[in-house]
Design brief:
heterodimer; A: about 350 residues; alpha+beta; Rossmann fold; OB fold (Dihydrolipoamide Acetyltransferase, E2P); 5-stranded mixed beta barrel; 8 helices; 20 strands; B: about 270 residues; mainly alpha; globular; Spermidine/putrescine transport system permease protein PotC (chain B)
Chain lengths: ~350, ~270
């Protein structure tokens, strides 16, 4: 079993972070720029030393080792391919530095070229490759020495949208095929949701929540997480009762709905709940739990966003898929009611 | 397109530019032309001939001085470039610290100190050393030349190091390269054009030095420039022009090579 735990105290960029990354998982550090996610990654790689705390790999403290002494490889944001070497020499660089015999290097390089679909390009200078191809060389170069952990520092940010989508699939496939632990850094929530087994959402040097993509999206623990990932509605509510892992809350309209709450919290008094726009439905007045006036309809092709001015203040967004072709059946300034599906509301910690 | 300001369209620009080029290159052009003069005057054209090139080629003193110049320049340039490379790495591959700017200044100081001051200082120093050691060979000239060539070699190497992507060295160390291996397999190959450029610049600078050589040399240690200076004091023949022309061609060739080598960093970025 392999796990990394880190404690960083009083570090400017990373403030007292403890994380356990499991073996063979695709783990993502997600957060806005400046949240410390890249610093964290660089400490695993060895380019930065933690002021306090430890980086443990399989129970061994590696936090004071030089980058070349750690069985960890990095895919850099700008790829950092060696411009004076060919594709094959780039991929074989790590093994060559480890002093592996030439025959072994050649066969690994061949396998790697195949793995990233660059067969026959081994003798090309890397400077002649396209952005997507360079990206794949960078991946192959980092995977070739079979590291215990592969670190990826926003490697897709320089690619255009289409290429980025196909590289997301590619990365996930590589991770499954090689069985290597991937630690991926990104500020793109969609990237994180698509690829990860687990996500750590970071903000201002601290980890706000760790969980599966579903946990992070559907069961955000706090306002920052809910706000950062996707679109969401925040509602003020009063806790009526708590039973098991559910709580009854009363909305401003007086209606009661059931809501889940994060671990380690006993909801009471005034709380904030979140409801995703796609988890609510629009209906005729009186049919739902919140009443209001339809303020704006935004047509997005695949679905409509209904901006509802809720009686008693605030705006609530409802998102409905355009399953059928034709008008949506509602018009602006109409009085409507919002129904909230069961078990979709989540109480926030803060 | 709206007219933007362009110096090229100002009245008289072409005239002034041509005049400046004329002033700059007329003397050199005259020198080159008269090196092909068949007569023995450097002012009266008597016909085309290569006799002065031949005469220079057959002049034992010219050959000896040339060989000496090349020897000194070659050895001094290599020493200067080696020192400059180490200095450049030390000053660019470090976190900025107090006193780094002072170090830059100290390395570049020889560019600012009047040459005559360096010359006199070296003369005094070396005369002492000569007394102590009894050695009076070319070593003094080589050391002197290496010293004033260091900043010239330093500049292109430092420029190259500063334009280099630091994440390359980081990537190498991430891929299990020790710091020596990183230098050997990544930094050095990428730095090579800069080192060659520095080497050539140092070579050219050493080759045409007069002031310091004149002060430091012992008897019979004339380099080509000091030999020519000595000859000009007596009688001036187109032989001097011929030697200068050859000198010019060699320098131009080296500078052209320097230009092409120092252009490579931009190519890498494409």
């Amino acid at each position: 079993m392999h796990g990394i735990k880190k404690w960083f105290g009083t570090f400017q960029a990373v403030d007292d972070v403890t994380l356990e990354i499991r073996s063979n998982e695709f783990f993502t550090l997600l957060g806005p720029s400046g949240c410390g996610k890249t610093t964290l990654l660089r400490m695993i790689a060895g380019f930065e030393l933690p002021t306090e705390g430890q980086v443990l790999l399989d129970g061994t403290d590696i936090s004071r080792l030089l980058p070349n002494q750690r069985p960890v490889n990095t895919v850099f944001q700008n790829y950092a391919l060696f411009p004076h070497l060919t594709v094959a020499e780039n991929i074989g660089f790590g093994l060559k530095m480890l002093g592996k015999p030439k025959s072994e290097i050649d066969s690994v390089v061949k396998d790697m070229l195949k793995l990233v679909h660059l067969e026959g390009r081994g003798n090309n200078p890397v400077t002649q490759l396209s952005g997507g191809q360079q990206q794949r060389v960078a991946l192959a170069r980092a995977l070739a020495p079979r590291p215990k952990v592969l670190l990826l520092d926003e490697p897709l940010s320089a690619l255009d949208l289409k290429l980025r989508k196909s590289m997301q699939m590619e990365l996930k496939r590589l991770q499954l095929e090689t069985g290597i632990t991937f630690v991926f850094v990104t500020h793109d929530q969609e990237e994180a949701l698509t690829m990860s087994d687990r996500i750590a959402v970071m903000s201002t040097g601290t980890v706000r929540q760790v969980g599966s993509p579903w946990d992070i999206y559907d069961r955000p623990a706090e306002r920052f997480v809910a706000d950062f990932i996707g679109e969401t509605n925040f509602l003020e509510a009063d806790v009526v009762s708590v039973s098991g892992d559910r709580a009854r809350v009363r909305l401003s309209s007086g209606a009661e709905i059931s809501a889940t709450y994060p671990d380690g919290v006993t909801p009471k008094g005034k709380v904030t709940i979140v409801v995703r726009p796609e988890h609510a439905r629009l209906g005729p007045p009186g049919s739902g739990v919140l009443e209001g006036v339809l303020d704006d309809i935004v047509y997005l092709g695949t679905d409509n966003h209904f901006h509802v001015k809720v009686d008693g203040g605030g705006t609530f967004i409802v998102r409905q898929q355009n399953a059928k072709s034709g008008p949506c059946g509602f018009s602006e300034q109409e009085r409507v009611s919002i129904a909230i599906n069961d078990d979709v509301a989540q109480i926030l910690r803060d | 397109m709206a007219k933007t300001f362009s110096i090229k369209r100002q009245p008289g620009f072409a005239t002034i530019a041509m005049f400046c080029f004329f002033l700059l290159y007329l003397p050199i052009a005259t020198l080159v032309v008269y090196s092909f003069n068949s007569g023995s005057s450097i002012a009266i054209w008597e016909g085309f001939s290569l006799r002065w090139f031949q005469s220079a080629w057959n002049n034992q003193q010219v050959i000896e001085a040339s060989v000496r110049s090349l020897q000194i320049a070659a050895v001094a340039a290599v020493i200067a470039t080696a020192c400059a490379t180490l200095a450049a790495i030390a000053t660019t591959r470090t976190a900025p610290y107090r006193g780094l700017t002072i170090k830059y200044s100290i390395i570049n100081m020889p560019l600012l100190v009047p040459e005559i001051v360096t010359a006199v200082a070296l003369l005094i120093l070396f005369s002492r050393v000569k007394v102590w050691t009894g050695y009076s060979g070319l070593g003094y000239l080589i050391v002197a030349h290496a010293a004033f060539c260091i900043p010239f070699a330093y500049m292109p190497i430092r420029a190259r190091l500063e334009s280099m992507d630091l994440s390359l060295e980081r990537a190498a160390s991430d891929l299990y390269a020790s710091s020596f291996q990183t230098f050997r397999y990544v930094t050095l190959p990428l730095l090579w054009p800069g080192i060659l450029a520095g080497l050539m610049l140092a070579f050219v600078i050493s080759l045409d030095d007069v002031v310091i050589t004149e002060f430091v040399k012992s008897g019979g240690q004339d380099t080509l420039p000091t030999y020519m200076l000595g000859q000009l004091r007596r009688v001036v023949t187109p032989e001097m022009n011929a030697i200068s022309t050859v000198f010019l061609v060699i320098s131009l060739a080296i500078v052209t090579l320097f230009f092409f080598l120092s252009r490579t960093p931009q190519k890498d970025n494409e």
